[in-house]
Specification:
- This protein is of the alpha/beta class.
- It folds into two domains: about 130 residues, D-Maltodextrin-Binding Protein, domain 2 (3-Layer(aba) Sandwich); about 100 residues, 3-Layer(aba) Sandwich (D-Maltodextrin-Binding Protein, domain 2).
- About 45% of the residues lie in helices and about 25% in strands.
- The protein has nine helices and 14 strands.
- Strands 1, 5, 6, 7, 8 and 14 form a six-stranded mixed sheet that branches.
- It is globular.
């Protein structure tokens, strides 16, 4: 091979080598961009801080291993799977702490079977889609009572939890019906104590949503359920998630996912498993 041929070959090899370097470098840049893109996608995932009840069995509670369990928790896991743009982070806590956490921004979302009431609606954003429907309010009392309507509770001692839906509804009822007013006793007690108060005659009645009352009658002896939807259309019959007022997109996304789960029958199966029947219809 002549000198000119040798240098031509060397030049070609140099070009090929340089091309290989350039191609390899571009390949590295492409991989890096993909990695950056993946990282950016991960960074775009919003962590949603969920304040959820820790003693509201069978809806949301801590099991024997101190692990979060219950209908609402299982539903939220399915909701989270449908929403890749969010990652739910749960903080089990007492009922009273959930609203405080929403007020202070510690929580983005509150979960504790919240019913609708006017005062809460002024402060918080309610989910458009309820997680379950409650079947309205009924009266709980010791066995053998003759309660059918609110009128039958005139002059009777009715225990309520402070600031709850029932206290607001009963206060409104008393204003509208002063001659049939019930005696409202404000006392925040655990379920076992409430039942003890009823069966031992300390108080005459306790008003609860049917979905809860069904569970109580199964769980506690000496307790009976009376009446049907005693507040009528004055009380909403849904259980809702609560959000901060400015979190409209989160509410919209969760409600849409929840609606899909209802339509797919997945929440209905969970309701039957945890609550004894399908309360999502």
């Amino acid at each position: 091979m002549g000198k000119n041929g040798f240098f031509k070959k060397l030049a070609v090899l140099g070009v090929l080598t340089l091309s290989g370097i350039v191609l390899t470098a571009c390949g590295n840049n492409d991989n890096s961009a993909t990695g950056d893109s993946d990282s950016a996608s991960a960074d775009d995932v919003r962590v949603v801080k969920v304040g959820i009840g820790n003693a509201y069995n069978p809806f949301c509670y801590l099991d024997e291993n101190e692990e979060l369990a219950g209908y609402e928790y299982e539903v939220l896991k399915l909701v989270d799977e449908k929403l890749p743009q969010y990652e739910f982070s749960y903080e089990p806590t007492e009922f009273s702490n959930i609203l405080v956490g929403l007020d202070t921004g510690s929580y983005d979302m509150g979960v504790h079977g919240f019913g609708w009431n006017e005062d809460r609606d002024k402060k918080y954003l309610y989910s458009e889609t309820p997680s379950v429907t409650t079947g309205g309010y009924v009266i709980l009392g010791a066995e053998g009572k003759d309660f059918k309507t609110l009128d039958d509770l005139a002059g009777k001692k009715v225990q309520v939890k402070t600031g709850g839906n029932v206290s607001n509804l009963l206060e409104a009822y008393n204003k509208e019906n002063p001659k049939k007013a019930v005696e409202i006793v404000y006392e925040d007690s655990e379920n076992e104590q409430i039942v003890s108060n009823l069966t031992n005659g300390v108080y005459d009645a306790y008003i609860n949503e049917k979905i809860d009352a069904d569970q109580w009658v199964k769980q506690f002896d000496g307790l009976e359920q009376y009446g049907t939807n005693i507040f009528g259309d004055k009380a909403d019959s849904g259980c809702y998630y609560l959000y901060n007022k400015n979190d409209e997109q989160l509410e919209k996304d969760v409600s849409a996912a929840l609606k899909e789960l209802h339509e797919e029958g997945k929440t209905g199966k969970l309701s039957t498993e945890y609550l004894g029947e399908d309360y999502t219809k």
